[in-house]
Amino acid sequence: MTATTPARPHAAAPGSVDWVSCPSCGWLLYRKRLDRNLSVCPECDHHLRLGARARIALLADDGSFDEHACPPGPADPLDFTDLRDYRDRLHEAAARSGESEAVVLGTARIGGTPVVLAAMDFGFLGGSMGIEVGRRVSAAADLALQRGLPLVTVCASGGARMQEGVFSLFQMARVSHAFAQLHESGLLSVCVLTDPTYGGVSASFATLAAVLVGERGAHVGFAGPRVVQETIRAELPSDFQTAEFLLAHGLVDRVESRAELRPLLVRLLELHGRRPAPPPAAAPVPAPEVPRDDAPAGDGAEDADAWDVVQRARVAGRPTTLDYLHTVFDDFVELHGDRAFADDPAVVGGVAVLDGRPVVVIGHEKGHSVRERVARNFGMPHPEGYRKAMRLMAHAETFGLPVVTLVDTPGAHPGPAAEERGQAHAIAETIMRSSRLRVPVVAVLTGEGGSGGALALCTSDRLLVLENAYLSVISPEGCAAILWRTATAAPTAARAMRLGAAHLRASGIATSVVPEPPGGADADPLAAAGLVRAALVRELDELARLDVGTLLGTRAARLARIGGDGDRPLRVVGPAPEGGGGDAAR
To answer: Where do the ZnF regions (C4-type) fall (predicted)?
Structure first.
């Protein structure tokens, strides 16, 4: 191992001239000012390219990087010659970049957390992936496995190395296998996608990490824009393949400026490295077989009319998932996208901390103002919203994190585009996935719970229902229009379906009712958040005592008993509050 300690402030290559022209806006920049600004143009915010060691200096704690020496492999497996010998190109690339290959790797600390850090250098043959790059990336993953450390990779590549032919192609399989082992081991991997990242690198390890972070303005894709235009003669959008384009299409979790990359990595590493203190020693806690009665009913819930609860659940000022994320939880890093099509704003999720415990939180988001509600599609998810939820559930299972869902939706979006993209499939798969998740799942019904669109995030070990929330097979208006032949009978339909917390608890669907402050959650959001937080901490502490087999078995038994099925009927302990409400996808 060879210790190297690059200084973080210097982002530019040594020996550069005093003045540099920005490749984007053409502005003449003083080199020292550019260095202080991390090689980001102060005029147009263009992020200039950095070498591997500058990247390491930017991200790692000062003096913490310990380079891992890689013995050289075969230099020219095909004895390749085009206009020049491949060996000559390799010697020239080494002389220009100061590196022996396009990847530098080693161990380091980021915010005090030990990691394996690998950075690609575009200055070495465009960061192209040949045998040696595949060996080094795989070695980084192997080192992370051996030492039980997270892996952070900084990607910059033009694609596969043509001079190594099919040997280069199969490095995609080699590094993908290495990342599969990381996933299976439950070790965190983060890929930072920088400008440019294309071809065989983007189609392998660069997009296989647990968390993908794009640097602002970076171009990332499979085939480059010139190849696309020449191949299919397509007119491309101006932001095609930018990091921001990827975020909008659900393909990366975050897009950050260069200055924000290190702080984000610090938070991600802390969130995935936390382990809560075990609950106080006590007798084993069995999964409850009866509805819980340890939460008071709250502000008149026992006398609440079902239609009144429906109206209260729909109040625009009622706290939303984003509100609870800022008031119930101690920290939250949002992760975006379904990694396939889009980032649905009607579903938000990511990694959070609750009372010292890392959790994955997923919830519907409606917004408050008219503009927010339109932007969030009134909390009605498209298929990509449910697929984002499934991806986050898988993330939770990989890292052994409990899942908390916050449910508040009129229902899944019913439009033709959603049907074309498999709305029913996405909902069904989400329900199936959550029913067998090998980590605790606690759902909180905070407002409306409309049909299968809500149930996708309600399939859980514990279902907590706020006093003025409801879950329904269809909206009262929809039920009234079908059965009473007029939507004006919605109040009658709500009462007939017995919507509300009282019926959910009495029937065994809800495991407890969370009281609301006088006047409802919207009257005192902070007090409501405190009640939700206390209920979640209690439930997660109890579920933490269950092993995986018990967790899955009791979850299955709870689902089987709903509706009176099972060995014996459920009994109600203590008085059950009344009330109701519900809305659903039509």
So the answer is: 22-44
